[in-house]
Amino acid sequence: MPTSRDRSITWVLALACLAPLAARAADAPPAELLVDADVRVAADGTVADYRLNGVLDHALADRVEREVRQWRFAPVLRDGQPVPAKTRLLITLQPATEWNRWTIADISTGEPALAKRELLMPDFPESALRAHLSARVLLDVKLAPSGKVEAVHVEQTSLDRPGDPKLAAQWAEIFGPPSVRAAKGWKFLPPESVDGQPVGTTIRIAIVFPYDIDTLRTHRFYPGPATPAPWLSPQVADDARRDTLADGQIQPLEERVRLADEVVGRTL
User: Fold this and answer.
1) Could you give the CA distance from residue 223 to residue 172 in angstroms, rounded to a whole number?
2) Distance between CA atoms of 32 and 95, rounded to whole angstroms?
3) Which residues contact 117 (CB under 8 A, 6 or more apart)?
4) Residue 235 pLDDT more than 50?
5) Which of 54, 157, 173, 224 is deepest in the core (most CB within 10 A)?
6) Which H/E stretch holds residue 227?
7) Reduced to 3 states, what is the DSSP secondary structure of residue 186?
8) What is the value of pTM for the model shown?
9) Which pairing describes strands 149-159 and 250-252: parallel, antiparallel, or unpaired?
10) At CA 153, angle to CA 157 and CA 201, rounded to 5?
C-alpha cells in the first residue's frame, strides 16, 4: 500500500510534469487585443498626431504607433474644403502565426467612449421573465456634439424563439420602452471633431435580455423586422453588421474620419 510519503512524491512529480505546460499556457498570447487611441488627421489625410489610451506592451505600442502614423485617411470636408479632424480609433489585433507578432483584424473610427465607467442597462420585463423569454434589441442612438443622447430609436427586436408575427410584435413592444428609457440616461465623450469643433453622430448598440446566462453564448435570436432611424440615410442604415453585434457592443454609423488605406490583414 502506498505510504503518505509515496503519495507526496507522486504529487511532486505530477506537478513537475505539469509546470512546463502551465508556463506555456501563461506565455500564450490572448486571443485578441483592442488598441484604443486618439488620432489627429491633417487636411491632406495624413496622421498629424497619435495618442494611445490605456496600457499596452511597450514594444507592441511602438509598433502600432509606427504603423498608424503611416496610414492615410480620406480628407474630411467642411463646406467643400478639406480640414483637420480628430477621431477615436479602435484597432483589433489577433495573434499572427509568427511568434510575438500580431495581425490587424479590424479597424473602427468614430466610436464614442463612455463618460461613465459602464452603461446603465434596462430592467428585464417581468412578463418576459415569467414566459422564460430572451430578446435582443438594437437601438439607434443619436448623440449631440457634447456626447449627450438626443434621440433613441428601436431599430429591431429579435426573440429567441419563432412564433406568430403579431405575437412577436407585441413582445417587441414590451422590450423596446425599457431599452429606450435606459439609453436616454447614457452619456458619452465626443468621439470626433472636425476643424476643431466636436460633431454629433449616431451609434447602433445591441442590448441582450438573457433569461439565463447561457443565452449570451448559445441562444439563437430570430430577427424581427428592421426599421432604421428616420434620420439615417439609406446607405448608412442598410448595414449587415447589425446581425453580428454582441451584447453592449457599439457600432458607429456616421463617422467622419475614414481610412483611405486597406490595412486589415497587415502584421505588426
Assistant:
1) 11
2) 7
3) none
4) yes
5) 157
6) none
7) coil
8) 0.80
9) unpaired
10) 125
Each residue's pLDDT tens digit, 30-78: 788 999 999 999 999 999 999 999 888 899 999 999 999 999 999 999 9
| Angstrom distances, CA of residue 50 to CA of 39, 148, 190, 239 | 5, 26, 17, 29
Q: How far is CA 255 from CA 133, 154, 204, in A?
A: 35, 20, 12
Average pLDDT score, the chain: 84
182 grid coordinates = 435606459
Calpha distance 85→77 (Å, rounded): 9
DSSP category for residue 161: S
Domains of the chain listed by start with CATH number? 33-109 (3.30.2420), 126-252 (3.30.1150)
User: Which cell numbers hold the place of 48?
Assistant: 498629424
Distance CA 204, CA 139 (A): 6
Say how far residue 205 (Cα) sits from the centre of its chain.
9
In 3-state terms, what secondary structure has residue 130? Answer: helix
d(CA 191, CA 204): 14
Contact 22, 63 (CB under 8 A): no
Cα gap 72→176, rounded to integer Å:
40
d(CA 199, CA 255): 10
